Amino acid sequence: MDILVGSLAAGILIGMVLALVAIGLTIIFGVMDIVNFAHGEFLMIGMYTGLLTAQGMGIDPLFTLPFAAVVGFLLGVICYYGFVKFLLRGPMVAQLLGTFGLMLFLRNVALLVFGSEDRAVHSGILVGRSFEVGMGVVIPATKLAAAGLSVVAFVTVWMLMNRTKVGKALTATALNSQGARYMGIPTDRMNALAWGIGAASVTIAGALIVNFWSVNPFVGLLFTMIAFAIVALGGFGSVPGAFFAGLVVGIITEIPGIWDFFTYTFNLDWMSRVPMTSFKYMWVYLAYFVIMVVRPRGLFGWKY
Amino acid sequence: MTLLEVQALTKEFGGLRANCDISFNVHQGEMVGIIGPNGAGKTTLFNCISGLYPVTSGRIIFAGRDITRLKAHEVARLGLARTFQVYAATGDLTVEENVMVGCFLRTRSRSQAMARAKQILYDLKLEDLSHYRVSELPVAAQKRVTMATALGLDPKLLLLDEVAAGLNPNEVEEVMANIKHVHSDLGITVMLIEHVMEMVMKISHRIVVLDYGEKIAEGDPQSIAKDPRVIKAYLGERYVREHGGELSPSS
Amino acid sequence: MEVLRNALDFSDFPRVDLCVAALVASFLLIFPLFHFSSFAMATMIQFLMFSLYGMGWNTIGGYGGQVDLGKAQYVGIGAYTTSVMLIRWDVPFWVSMPVGMSFAVLWSFIIGYPLFRLKGHYFAIATIATSLVLKDLFEVWDFVGAARGLEISPIKYHPPDFLRLIFKEDVYYYYVILGFFFLGIFYVNWFRKSRLGFQLRSIKDNEDVARSLGINVHWAKVKTYAIATAFVSLVGSFHACYIKNIEPEDTMSLDISILIALMAMLGGAGSLWGPIIGAGVLIPLKSYLKEWLGAKAGLVGIDLIIYAVIIMLISAVEPRGIWGIVEKARRRRSV
Fold first, then answer.
1. Does residue C250 fall inside a structural domain?
2. Domain segments of chain A: what residues?
3. Could you identify which of A63, A96, B160, C289 might form a hypothetical disulfide with C303, taking C-beta atoms 3.0 to 4.6 angstroms apart as the criterion?
4. A295 touches chain C (CB under 8 A)
5. Which of the four pLDDT bands, split at 50, 70 and 90, describes residue B250?
6. According to the model, what pLDDT value does residue B236 have?
């Protein structure tokens, strides 16, 4: 039982962080119909930012979030004005390969600058601590804090999109960019803002994830694929969808733990022979494929 | 002989009724015009008949077969061809290649398809344009190319969606000659949506009038032109004032 | 007969193209006589392999406009079938290659059928997902060596072994793949003029129009996807015999899938020469950059940075690729 509850709890906690990863992707997609392959690389940069500012300034990794947000915002805006803007008039193939090029670029610049070895956070108020919540379930404090802060960041972004004038202008651009331009909304700046907010939310997620996940320049792709799966499930362009889908995908990543639970509970020999941990992320890809084929608009999608 | 039977056809988009309980027949060898103001549901009707949209209710029978649930390509194979109002040709196919795509429905051989395409282009007086890309042509020529492409299918029934819209009088004459050729020389039954009254009134045997998704009138051009409901819905008050309440085919 | 005539008929190209093509073809035929370095030889073989991958991709991606970013799974299927059959049962290449192609085509139908319900980016990302699923499965499948992969050890055989395609000198491999390369060109030249080719180009233009012209759009896409797959699987089988050491991480990685799509696009998707031009530019560039900047100067990753910049430039400036630039210049001159 403890394994099951533990896996589910871990899944939900990581799911909250993953929701924050995905919100950036869904905003960018919603506003300008571009799928950003470099999304995971933004996360990787967020992880390095968190790690290096924490080490460089000697502060706790949890306090590096503002730095990560600023770095992410600037990165997003620079990417937009410097590159993505020129992709918008091109065909979809060009957009796909273009953001893929951006991904390769960021990844290899990171490789050149930081080297290929894994790095992790070793110190901090919460590192190494954990709570026992009963029934033998132990939750690391870093994950709990990351999940909590993710929810805060997520809600902030959501409020920004829904309750402010800028957010409404963004939504208008998403619904009908030409119409928005005629209404006097500077759509170009809105696109840049979408990239800024999108990148900032994912770098914040990165700075949170680095507390319990080691970073190297190649970490991005996995998160890009996870984010795609979440966005597909939640519906391309839907912010609340991203949250619930994040939780679902978080639980999907914990399928090996759940599998173990059933193996022990029913004492099934064949189940124990399946190397489930190696399949950990395969479920995410499979989920993406099945969701897209069965319900292309996702659970909450309004854009198709 | 009845070639096409539309029985109580209804098409809804969400809550919006684009076609409501429309019934009419098209006989072998006829030329039937569909008219109606913008948004009357004419193109939706074509999309339903040609199988691009699934219908909400009603039946469509073509050459004695129920085609209501068939997919667009299956309908086309039975001999029901259509053109499109906006022919968004962005790709790199030339005029001849475009017509060949249609011809390939009936043959696997490239040389046969090519010979057939050349023949159609010659018949429609388009052979000079054969090697241009469709996207490079003016609208008038593009519309004639879509007719040629549809003819490649060897259709029994051809649905023409506004082939004369936006053309100047000379071009309208050319298109009309093409349609007459298709109808009388090739013996293809034609159903056309048209806004150009001069043309549709002149060449149709029978006219079906749609307004707000419903069929409001059906009959020969003379009686349609006199029908008060049609005049009100379609032609408007101004036309009534200027033409004394009748749409004369010669105007 | 007509098929053969169409495959060999290049008369719709301008004469300049044909002259250049003839020059390149004769250069390729006599290339080994120059005795360039073995590095150059290896690069040329890579170029021919990737040209073929690109030609396969071009059928569905270029002529059909369906951006497929999951071709690596078929490289894997071809390569693994050939390796497994050779290592376990000593089955020669010429038998295992068609078997691999059949497996690949079968798999392409299984996943292609649901996959082509999707369009645009949704389709592209889903192809990545299927490819990664297959890679993950191969990484734990003991029968095919799991993550360690498979190794064909050449000592067991007596090179030159034309049946099993085990050679000591690269020049044999070169001529085998060159043969496939020419066959591939003839095939695509036939394909683009065939019924399916025309249907596919019409689908790319406008799917509704294609439907109303009696084209079963879904089925045409699935069929073409299978054709593209067969190409890729064939080269995958060759790859197994040539490299002799395959593992999921480098045979089936996303990078391979992207590289295939990228080359076709760089050269000009939807044209016969595009993938060849793309491979001809990108493969030498990639391997020499790696050699000079990566290995000699010790700057890890800088080759890929330059490579990434090229991708970004092409996609932002001229998405129709090098061939698009040539065509544009031509049309401007003729107007």
1. yes
2. 2-294
3. C289
4. no
5. very low
6. 63
A273, pLDDT greater than 80: no
Predicted structure pTM score: 0.87
- Count of the separate structural domains present in chain C: 1
Best of C68, C130, C299, C312 to substitute, by most chain A Cβ atoms within 10 angstroms, is C312
Dist. CA C76–CA C80, nearest whole Å: 6
- Please report whether residue C293 resides in a domain: no
Identify the residue among B110, B120, B145 best suited for mutation to test binding to C, counting C beta carbons within 10 A and taking the highest.
B110
Phi, then psi, of A108 in degrees rounded to 5: -80, -25
User: Mean per-residue pLDDT for A258-263?
Assistant: 75
Q: Does the predicted interface ipTM exceed a cut of 0.90?
A: no
- For the residues C247-276, what does the mean pLDDT come to? 87
Among candidate residues B153, B145, B105, the one with its CA nearest the CA of residue B124: B145
Please say whether the beta carbons of C193 and C186 come within 8 A.
Answer: no
Is residue C260 a part of any domain in this protein? yes
Six-digit token pair at C101?
A: 């192609």
CA angle A243, A247, A251 (to 5 degrees): 165
Could you tell me which CATH number the domain at A2-294 has? 1.10.3470
Give contacts of A 34-93 with C, CB under 8 A.
35, 83, 86-87, 90-93
Q: What share of chain A is helix, strand, coil (3-state, %, to 5)?
A: 75, 5, 25
Question: So what's the pLDDT on residue A277?
Answer: 66
Q: Which residues does chain C have within 8 Å of residue B75's beta carbon, measured at their own beta carbons?
A: 212
Cβ–Cβ below 8 Å for C319 and A112: no
Q: What is the pLDDT of residues B203-217, one digit of tens each?
A: 899 999 988 888 888
Placement of tokens 């395609």 in the chain: C165
- Whether C139 contacts chain A with CB within 8 A: yes
Of B84, B91, B110, the CB nearest to C194: B110
- B90 pLDDT more than 70: no
Mean pLDDT of C242-261: 86
H-only helix segments in B136-215: 139-151, 169-180, 197-203
With CA atoms as reference, the chain C residue closest to B50 would be C212
Name residues 209-228 of chain B within 8 A of C (Cβ).
Answer: none
Q: Which domain holds residue C240?
A: 2-264
Residue to substitute from B47, B86, B101, B103, interface C, most C β-carbons within 10 A: B101
**Hey, what domains does chain B have and what are their CATH numbers?**
2-86+155-243 (3.40.50.300)
Whether the per-residue pLDDT at C52 is higher than 90: the answer is: yes
Residue C282 lies in a domain: no
CA distance B153 to B101: 9
In Å, how far is C193's CA from the nearest CA of chain A? Answer: 24
